[in-house]
User: What shape does this take?
Amino acid sequence: MSTPVQVKSISKSFGTNQVLRGISLDIHPGEIVSLMGANGAGKSTLIKILSGAYPEFEGEIWIDGEAVRIGSPLEARAQGIETVHQKIDDGIISGLSVAENLLFDRIGLNQIPTFCSPKRMVALSREVAQSLDLDWTDSELRADVYQLGIADKQMLLLARALSTKPKLLILDEPTSALSDKETERLFVVIKKLRAQGVAILYVSHRLGEIDELADRIFVLRDGLIQNEQAPPFKWDVALHAMLGSEVARELQHHEEHRGTTELLKAEGVQLFAESTPFSVGVRSGEVTGVIGLLGSGKSEFARAIFGAEPLIQGTFTLEGKAYHPHSPTEAVAEGVYLVSEDRALDGLLEGWNISRTVSLPFLKKVTSQGLLNFRAESELGSDLIKKLGVVAQSQSSTVESLSGGNQQKVMVGRWLIQEPKLLLLDEPFRGVDIGARREISRQIGNLAAAGSAAIVFSADIDEILEVADRIFVFVEGELRLETYLSNTTRSEIIQKMSEVA
Amino acid sequence: MNMETPAVTRIQFNVRDLLVKYGFIAVTLILFLLFFTTQDTFRLSTTFFSMLKFTSVVAITGLGITLSMAVGGLDLSVGAVAGMSVTLSAMTMVIYNQTGIVAVGIVLLAGAVIGAVNAFLIVVLKIPDLLATLASMFTVMGLKLVPVNGQSVSSGMILRDGSTARGKFTDAFLKMDTGKVGPIPYPVILFFVLTLITWFFLTRTKWGRAMYAVGSNPEAARLAGVRVKRYRALAYILSGILASISGLILASRIGQGDISAGNSLLLDSVAVALVGTSVLGLGRPNAWGTALGAFLMGVVITGLTIAGFPYYGQDVVKGLVLLLALIFSFTLSRKKSRFVPAV
Assistant: This one.
C-alpha cells in the first residue's frame, strides 16, 4: 500500500506548442500534494492526462509499481484515478436521482447489476454516501439531484469518486463555488480521506487552503516544475517560481505618470459574498494595474464597472456623478469601455471582418438615420489598422484570419480609437506575442498620457510592471495594496499576493 | 498545417468551395432549364407568374423566419399567425361587416401583438425560442377557433344568434390576390418588395447589423454595448407582422375564413429560410437567400406537377431539396454554421 502513484517525465505538445516539458512527481498514499501554477502553466493539461482526457503524451504513469496505460477517462477510473473537476455542475447528471448520481461511476465500471430495483439502488447508494458520513435519508436519495445545494453536490461528487476506491484522487479547485463554511466541511472530509490512506492531488489558487491541507507543494510554470516544498511553506518563494523571476524576462521600463484628477471612485465595493468591502479611486492620466491570481475578483471588478455584472454591494462615482450602469450599453454611452477577458468566447464574431468588428459598439457613428455608411465604416477599420499596426491584408479581412496578437490589437483598438474616458482591459496580453504586447502597452500608455484613465487587469506581474503606473493588488476579492510603481518592488507585490488571509 | 499539400487536393478543395458558394444557385438554374426545355406548359409566362404567386405566401413567412433566425432563434408560430389572420380577416368583414382596410389593420396589429407576446416569453420569461414559439403556436391555433365555434367563416353563414352574416369579403380585399400590374400579380410584387425591404433592413441598417451580431454571439454583442433583448424582441415582432401579411394574401386567395388555412405553412417556410442560408455559401439567414429558396421550391413543385408527378410525393421532394441545402451548409462548407437555436 505504500507504493506511491508516480508520474514519470510526462511531456505534452499541441502542435508546436510544448505545454509540459518532462514533469515528474510522486504522490504517496495518505498524502495531499498541491499543484500550483498560473494560467497556461500546464496544470490542467497534467490533470487531463491523469484523468484520461488526453490519451496521447510522452512519459509514464506508475501505479502500484507498474506502468499503466490511461487512454480514456474510463481507463483512468479502472486504474484507480478519480478526478473531481472544477465545474461541479459538469459532473452532476441532472434528471437522475441522487442515488443514481452516486452510483454513476460504478455503473460505468459495470459494478452494478444491469437490472437493479430502485430499492436496491438506494441501498447501494447509501453505502456510497456513508463513506463520507453523508446521512441522507431514503427519500433524499430518491429525490432529483437538482434539489441538492451546491455544497451537497460537491460532496456527492466526492463520495462518488470514492465509490470506486481510487488510489489517486484529483481535486481541481474544489472550493471555487463553496462558501467558507462549506469549505470547512469539505476540508474535514479531505483530511479524513488522507487519514484513510488516499493519495490526493489538490489543485487550487487559494494559498490559505493549500497552507492548511498540503503536505507538499509543486509549482508549475512553462511546463516545468520550478519549485517543490515541504512545510513550512515559503509562499513568496512559491509565487516567485509561479510568476517568473526578473532575470527570466527582459523588462520594458517606462516612465511613471501620475494623474491628478480622480475619474472613478468606488466606495464600499464588495466583490464576493464573504469578502470585505473596499473603497478606491482611479485617476485619469495614469495607467492603473490590477494584479491578482485567478479568483481574486479582478474580472468581477472590471465587469461591474462596465455594467456587465451587478455588484454585491457598493457604489461608483464617475466624474463626481453617481454612476450605476445596468448594462454595457449604458457604460459605453458614458465612455467607459471594456476589452473582455476571453476574446474567442465573448469578443470575436465569426466571419465578421475588421471594419464590422470595429464599428459594432459605435454603430451610431457610422450611420445616419439608421442607415449604415459603409465608407465611414471601412475608414474606421483602416484607421485602426494604421494606428495599431495590425498585420492584415485589408480592413475587410475576417478577424479569425488574423494571428492572436493582431486579433487582440483589433479588440483593444476598437475601443481605443474612440477616445475612452476609462478603458478597462481584462487580461489584454493573453495569447498575444511579444510584439503585439509591446504595441498594446504603448497605446495604453499614450491613452493615459492624453488624459484618459486605463485599468489593466492581469495575473502576470511582468505585464503589470510593464504597463502600470499605479498598482492595486487583489486577493480573494479584497484590495491588499494600493501604491505607485516607484514606491513598490516586485517582491512587495508578490509578498502581498502571497499573504494568506 | 502540412506544407506539402499536393496540388490535387488543393484543386478538390477549390471545387468544394465553388460548390458551397454557387452549388445551390446552379441547382436552381439547372432544374429551371430542365423543366423549361422539357415542359411546354412550364414555358408559359402565366405559369411562371402563377408559380411565383403561390410561392409568395411561403416566401413572406420565410422572411419572418429569416429575421428570427438572424437573432439566433426560430419563430415556430408563423404558420399559426398566418392561419389566425385568415380567420380574423373573415370575421372582420363577414361577421362584423367591416371594410377590407379595417381587416388589414386588425390582422397586422394582431400579428404584431403575437410577435410581442413571443418576445415577452423569450426575452422576459427566458423560455428558449423554440419552446416558447411552439407554445404560442398551439395557443394561437386553438384561440382562433373560439369566436367562430370552430367553423370556417363564409358569407351568408348562420351566426350564433340565429341571424345570417351580413358581410362578405370586399372586392378590394379579394383584389389583393387577383390583382395584377401588367402580367405581374400583386402578391408577387409584395413578395419582391418585402424581400427588398428585409434585405435592406438586415444589411444596410444598424438595426440589422446589431441583429446579426446578437445571432452570432449574444455575449460578444452585449459586451459591445448592443441591447440584445431589444433586438431579439424586434425580430419576433417583425416576424409576427410578416406572418400576418402572408395570412392576408392567403385570406384573399381563399375568399373565406377557412380554419385549416396556414396549417402547412410553418414547415414550408422554415425549409425555405434554411435553404436560403446555403445560398452563396453565406451560412447565415438572409433575405435574398430565402426568396431564392422559395423560388426553387416553387420551380420544383410546379415542374414536377406539370410533369405528372403525384401531389402526395411533393413533401419527399421538399425534404430532399432541404437536405441538399443542409449538406451545402453543414457538410461541405468550411464555415461553422450556427444559426440553428439550441433548445
Q: What stands out?
A: Chain B has one domain: 31-156+164-332. The two ends of chain B are 36 Å apart (CA to CA). Chain B touches chain A at residues 204-207, 209-210, 213, 216-217, 219-227, 283-284, 335-336, 338 (CB under 8 Å). The longest helix of chain B spans residues 7-38.
